[in-house]
Amino acid sequence: MQKIYVHIGLHKTATTTLQKNVFSKIYSNNLNYNPFEIMPIIEDAMILQDFSDLSESRKKIYKKLVDENLKKINEEIIFISNENISQNLFKQNWHDRLELLNYFFPSASIILFIRDEVNWLRSAYLQALHSGFICSFEEFLSFKELPKYLSNLKTFSSVDLQKVDHAKIVKAYNLKFGEQNVNVFSYEDLKSNPYTVIDNLFKILSIENTDTLNFEKTFKNKSYTQKSVEYVNNISNLLQKIHLHRLMEAGDRQLTYRRKRALRTLERIDKHIDFNQAFLSYTPVSRLNLLKKNIYYLFIWLINRIYLKFINLNPIRLFLARFGNKDNKWHEKSDTNKKLKKCLIGNKKLNKPFNS
């Protein structure tokens, strides 16, 4: 019988670091990490959920596809790692994600990393800037009204501090999956004692940690500085005045494109036995059509690549990175910090990180 482990993040708890430096280097004949047979299905379901397009009938289709494709995997241990499974960082829909995950994998074991909530919010804000959702920290926290162009987007919303409660998330997962199947770690422990945390992760997965990793360098990333954040907000204000703010919205373009791809894939499932074939051929510019050596398809493929480059274009990142480590690290104003902590404490939200 297959055992499924799902690492759900949270966002901004070194998930990408773990994926690149630990999980992708796991070598085990008995473990399949992020199997391609099911990951596109899960990702499509999540993106449709973000856009409120995941109807019950579509959810049943995805569930059937997941169950069918799980049978194609020979390994006894399936290990999935994707921080978007916990929630959309900018929509805080963690409860909807919990229900979806339980629907797909009701007997899964969960691996969950949490973080001091004030620091988590700071990091989430910088991620918003990085994704092209430009606003002040006060606007991000709902202390002030969002710029009009942001408030009209379906892919972004300001933070609801009532939902920033990591203890509540842990409790909800314990109730849904059983406390014995929910493994909670803290970002702070991972940063201070990475090898101990990683050893514990490998014990949960029932595999040996045979690799030696250098985490001292891994955590030394460039931090966005006070100057870079100020410049980005000034540039954003200027582009809004001349109606060129769309240039910044790389995150919105990417998510909208993925939604369109997911819907097209669903439309083609009836024409293809295999989901992955439908996923790859959702548009006539897929690599499958390049095999036909048709000049038309080659030309369309080239146009599509240029289009994808535009989707991912985010000039804001250049400004954010330009001043990295050359100025004081960004930090919110003291009065904003006091107001934030007061809100979290008032809602009994300022919880210490759980120990692993």
Entry keywords:
Rossmann fold, 18 helices, five-stranded parallel β-sheet, single chain, globular, 356 residues, alpha/beta, disordered C terminus
Write a structural description:
The chain is an alpha/beta fold. It has a single domain, classed as Rossmann fold (3-Layer(aba) Sandwich). Helices cover 52% and strands 7% of the residues. The protein contains 18 helices and five strands. It has a five-stranded parallel β-sheet, sandwiched between helices. The relative contact order is 0.15.
Note the topology.
Elements: E1 3-7, H1 15-21, E2 31-33, H2 39-50, H3 56-70, E3 77-81, H4 94-104, E4 109-114, H5 117-130, H6 137-140, H7 148-151, H8 166-177, E5 182-186, H9 187-192, H10 194-204, H11 215-218, H12 226-241, H13 250-268, H14 275-280, H15 287-290, H16 295-312, H17 315-322, H18 334-346
Parallel strand pairs: 1-3, 1-4, 2-3, 4-5
Helix pairs in contact: 2-13, 4-8, 12-17
In this structure, how is the largest beta sheet organized?
5 strands, parallel
> What would you call the structural class?
alpha/beta
The CATH topology is: Rossmann fold
CATH class: Alpha Beta
In what order do the strands lie side by side in the largest sheet?
2-3-1-4-5
The quaternary organization reads as single chain
E-strand count = 5
Average residue pLDDT: 83
- Radius of gyration, in angstroms, nearest whole number: 21 Å
Total domain count: 1
User: Roughly what percent helix?
Assistant: 40-55%
Portion in strands = 5-15%
From the spread of the alpha carbons, the general shape counts as globular
Query: Segments where pLDDT lies below 50 for 5+ residues?
Result: 282-288, 352-356
- The SSE string, one letter per element, is EHEHHEHEHHHHEHHHHHHHHHH
User: Judging by the overall fold, what is the CATH architecture?
Assistant: 3-Layer(aba) Sandwich
